[in-house]
Amino acid sequence: MSLWRLSEIVRTVPNSPLSLAASVLSVSFLSLYILRSRPRRTSKVAQERERVLILGATSGVGRTIAHKYASRGAYVCIVGRREAKIGEVVQECKELSSQGGFEDRILGVRGDCGNVEDMVKLREALQKAWNGLDTLVVTAGVSALQPLMTVAGVEMSPKDTVGSQATPEGIQHAVNAATAALNGNFLGPYIAAITFVPLLSYTSQSPSIMLLSSVAAVIPAPTRTLYASTKSASLLLYQALAIEHPSIAFTFVLPGTIEGDFRASAVDNPLGSSVTRIHEADPNKHGLKRDTVAARCIRAIDSGEKAVFAPLYFRAGHILYWLWPSYIEWRARVKYNFSTS
User: Which domains does the chain have, with CATH numbers?
Assistant: First the structure.
C-alpha cells in the first residue's frame, strides 16, 4: 500500500479521540506489516551462531528467554545476582541446547548490572569465550508498588482539612526507595549500555539490543510512581542511544503485567512496615504468560522491530492518553483499585 493511500485513510476518518486513535493504530498495523516484509536479522546472524547475553536471566521472562535461545542453539550467557539460581538456569539451558545437538554453548556469570566492576568482568569473560557479542537482552529490574505519599508515611484523605505531613524520616525513606528503584531500573541498563555498546558494534555483523521495559513507562498509573518513572527513564535512554548508534538495532518491549513473583522485588514498602500492600489483581491469575512475552521478545529481535506493546491494544491506550487523558486515568484507577476517597 502506498504512503498516499495511507494518508487518505487517515484524512477521511472523523475527527474524534477514539477515531483518531483507531486510525493511528491502523497505520501502526500497516507499518508493522511493511517492517516484517524486510529481511530478517537471522540472514546475517544464524541462530546457531548468535551470541546472546541476558541480564536478569535467573527468573521471570529473562529465564524463559534464555531457555528459548538455548533451544535453538545460540551461545547464551546467563547473568544474575544469585549464584544458586545461575547454576539452575545454566543446567536447564545446557539440557535444552544438547537436545538440539549443541554442546558447550552456555555460560553462567554472577553479576549485578548496577556494579561497574561486575559488568567489566562480564565483558572480559565474553571476549575470552566468544570473541564478541551479537545480542544484548536487558530484563533486570525491580518493582515498586505503592502510592508515593504512602512510601513517605503520609496518610491523606480529601475529607481532611488539616492532614498529616511528611516527616524528615518519611522523606528520607522515600528518597531511599527512589535510589533503590533508580539503581535497579535505570543505572543497571545505563551501565550495561556503556559497557557493551562498543563490544556489540565492533564484533557483530548485526548487533542488537533488547530492553524489556513496561507499558507503565509510557502510560502512567497510580501506585506505580517510582516504578513508572524509573522504567521511563531507561526507556528514553535507550531510545536516544538508538539514534546515537544507528548500526545497532534497538528493540523496546512494553508489556502489561506478567505472571510471576516480580512484585517480591518491591523496593518501596511504606515507612515502618515490612508488609507490601498489593493493590491490583493477582498477576499469576490475570497476567501475561512468561512464555508468550519471551517468544514475542525474540521474534521482535529477529525482525528488527522497534517498539512492541504486549498486548497490542496498549498501543491504542498510549495514543488515547494524549487524546483523552481523563479516560485513561480512570481506567488506571480501576485497574489498580485506587481511590482518593
Answer: 46-335 (3.40.50.720)
